[in-house]
Design goal:
7 strands, rod-shaped, 30% helix, alpha/beta, 3 helices, single chain
């Protein structure tokens, strides 16, 4: 241990040891805390393209499908779903307290019939809603043939 020795006028020496064990304990806890929080500060990504609906074929000659450049967005709100296709807007209100998933899938299939080459969609949802609502909306998009899903904040949808 580290120590300091002093001599006084009376000829008597004092030995004062500095206990650094609590300091080492504090530093080890801080290092562990910083390592754990550093992992959670990374932005996480959801890999949608690797699902069963978005798998690519194993052909030697893979050509990307032609994309339709019409903006397509699914907004998940407290009052229900809202589909925005270009300048057209379709509102699907809730039935009671439940989202109308049957009507949502029907509307998404209509969009797929109109734009068969369209594969992408942007999903927005407010932070106050449950995460399961986002997953249900993404499942409806996958079932309707839209495997390229992007997730945006609801602030972008306003």
């Amino acid at each position: 241990m580290a120590g300091v020795q002093e001599e006084r006028k009376g000829g008597r020496s004092t030995n004062v040891e500095v206990n650094i064990v609590p300091f080492i304990d504090l530093m080890s806890v801080l290092v562990i805390f910083l390592l754990i929080t550093a992992v959670w500060s990374q932005v996480s990504m959801i890999q949608i393209g690797s699902s069963i609906y978005g798998k690519k074929s194993n052909d030697d000659k893979v050509e990307p499908p032609p994309k339709v450049e019409v903006p397509f967005r699914l907004d998940i709100k407290d009052s229900g779903h809202r589909l925005i296709i270009g300048r057209n807007e379709v509102s699907i209100p809730k039935i009671g307290n439940e989202y109308d998933m049957v009507k949502l899938i029907a509307e998404l299939k209509k969009v797929k019939e109109i734009y068969p080459d369209k594969a992408d969609c942007v999903v927005t949802m407010t932070d106050s809603l449950a995460y399961v609502n986002l997953i249900d909306g993404m499942d409806a998009l996958l079932q309707s043939g839209f495997p390229q899903i992007s997730i945006s904040t609801a602030a972008a949808a306003q």
